Amino acid sequence: MNHNTPLSPRPLSDLSDVRRRVLSAAQLRARGVTAERVAERCAPGGPWQQLLPGVFVLHPGTPTSEERLHAAVTYAGRPDEGEVMVTGLAALALHQFASVPSLTALERIDVLVPRTRRLRSAGCARLIRTHAMPRPDVVTGLPVAPVARALADAVARLTDPGAVRRLLTEAVRAGHCEPGAVVAELTRARLLSRPHVVDAVDRLLAEGRTVAEGRLYDLVRLYGLPEPVWNVDLRLPGGPQLGSVDAYWPEQAVAVELDTRAPRPAAAPDGPDADPEWSASGRRREHLERLGITVVRIAPRRLRDFPVQQAMVLRTALMASSDREPTPYVVVLPR
């Protein structure tokens, strides 16, 4: 093919690939199409249209949602190098969230770009700048922000408490991501100072605990582990409470603690400024272990992604109990 030859018009039936229907000025130049030719074809009544500065749709009529997405990413530049990705509500729609508007209903498509990118939002493309680009997922051929990051970018622009609550609840209930990942992104975006976001996060963590408990029940029964007592408080006879656990095998003195708390703040290590919840949890666990009770802490994500491994860990802990010294008598009470 002679690259100096102008691109011949193609019938719509030939434009099955969106990458051939949405092209940048640079891509058109590389195919031998001059700026004058582009202007001529984008004139009123012409067969092409300019959707964004320097980005063209090679057919008349209303662009599809797929074309708008590709146009926004093309406008922001260099998607193949991980330097641009769809985020916010558009990304959540691509991740199949039911509680977000359809792509056709979104006026703006949020696109994540590096902080140093010299480009402004335009038309349907709204640029969101960041110091650290996450690793994108690929959905329908597009680079898309991971769910937790897309949620944070969406929540940053939402003022309706109900909408925020629905998004965060669906993220956990539908298995899109774990609560800890969402809270980490909301913390990074400094959104936890907003009361309606804090309320939604409380509900998110409660939802996450319910989901994790269900997975733990299923794991015990599916892999044939002995039935424990569920959700109990432990204490010494006549003494103070030792702590609450999610599952306990009294004969083997093995306890399970689901780690469903928010991620540990990076700025709160052990010491005078340590996070109180983390410090109290660590002290409870150490006290139980000093009494000879094996405490198995399980992150919900590991229950979801590695159930066989977690079942083996629990089975090993239960079998090892016969090799340990007898533990003091512990009173088991419903939580």
Helix vs. strand class: alpha+beta
How many strands in all?
13
- Largest sheet features: 5 strands, mixed
| H/E element sequence | HEHHEEHEHEEEEHHHHEEEHEHHE
First-last Cα distance: 75 Å
Low-confidence runs of at least 5 consecutive residues: 1-16, 265-274
* Tally of structural domains: 3
What is the general shape? Answer: elongated
How much helicity do the residues have? 25-40%
Write down the Rg: 27 Å
Number of helices: 12
Q: How big a fraction of the residues is strand?
A: 15-25%
Keywords:
DUF559 domain-containing protein, 12 helices, 335 residues, Endonuclease, Chain A, 5-stranded mixed sheet, alpha+beta, disordered N terminus
Describe this structure in words.
The protein is of the alpha+beta class. It folds into 3 domains: 12-63, no CATH class; 66-207, no CATH class; 224-266 and 276-334, 3-Layer(aba) Sandwich (Endonuclease, Chain A). The chain is 39% helix and 18% strand. The protein has 12 helices and 13 strands. It has helices spanning 18-21, 25-30, 35-41, 65-76, 88-94, 147-155, 161-173, 179-188, 195-222, 276-290, 300-305, 307-320, and strands at residues 22-24, 49-52, 55-57, 85-86, 109-114, 125-130, 137-139, 142-144, 229-235, 241-249, 254-258, 294-298, 331-334. It has a 5-stranded mixed β-sheet with strand order 12-11-10-9-13. Strands 1-3-2 form a 3-stranded antiparallel β-sheet. The protein has a 3-stranded mixed β-sheet with strand order 4-5-6.
